[in-house]
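ugh ok fine here u go
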Amino acid sequence: MSDVVIGILGGYGAVGQATARHLRSWAGASVRLRIGGRRPDAAAAFVEAELGGDAEAVAVDLDRPDQLDRFAEGATVLVNCAGPSYRAYDRAARAARDAGAGYVDAAGEEPLRDRLRAPESAWTGPAVLNAGMFPGLSGLLPRCLYRQEGFERATRLLGYVGGIDRFTPGAAGDYVESLFSGAGEGGAAWRGGIRVPNVLRRLTGVELPFFPGEVTAQPGLTTEVDSIARALSLSDVDWYNVFPGERVLALLRRMQGTTAADRDVGAATAELIHAAALDRAGRQSYQLFVYQLEGTIAGAPAARTLVLRGEDGYGLSGLVTALAATAVLEGAVPDGVHFAADVLDPDAAWSWAQASPAVTTCRIVDGPAGEDTDEGEL
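structure:
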């Protein structure tokens, strides 16, 4: 049996299962998987049904430091897919540090990064955070487009990211927490190489390239979008989060308008799960990424459009989490705390996306978005 162990916290959850499947497909028997969670029966059932019994099923509770330490012991990489991540804070990362393991978190945004980078954390190994779909895959794909098409210089990015999907309690809790923390700036865009507020307006009842039917597109920027702009030296960035349904968007607007005293993460999480279910009723789930990049290729002005679609956002998250775990395992991630989109190899990400069963469409169109929108190919 292999001495290389990857432990997956929340390993029988939606993202954890997708991560385990991708890792098993990539590594086979060369890596031993350790599937952990509060319900050992659920972990064992997943191991038997999906992994052919060839993995460990371990009971572990994030609220039990002794169990966390035992779970991390002997692991080469510890992957945290348990949610909602804000409840765990840095407990899983500390267990990885104490065990001498690399660390990957499907979530874990700026607060966790800052905590791990603080001198008192004594963090020394490689850690990859935001290794999910959004943020994560959303920040990798523009870099993939830049590299795959051989841009010498990029000037403008137009991004449409969104879809219709179910929310698990963990994913919904993290989404609500990010809204209440004030992440993102609605209406902002990059112009002339800097972030400018109140540039864009919401697009309501519009048809966008590659999206089925009418949608609402909410403009805004996040720290991940800013990172893309800086990494590619972009002058202009227009970024839209796309909502095919009305109920989730209406709820998000209402939540963003609440005062701190009125915020109840538990109640808002339940409302978000319900709203997403109503929006999905009678409709096929999908997650879609459309990026139009303009710049110079072979000395001439050029525009290219990347289109990636998956039927399940959790499968797409598992793709990135597994890619991050393999990068840490292979020594491709330097010591320190990094966000996935900033440190993972775009060429490897593109190769994984093309091969992943979680991805139903993965292609690059020669020209701007809208010139090739044959939905039959999607």
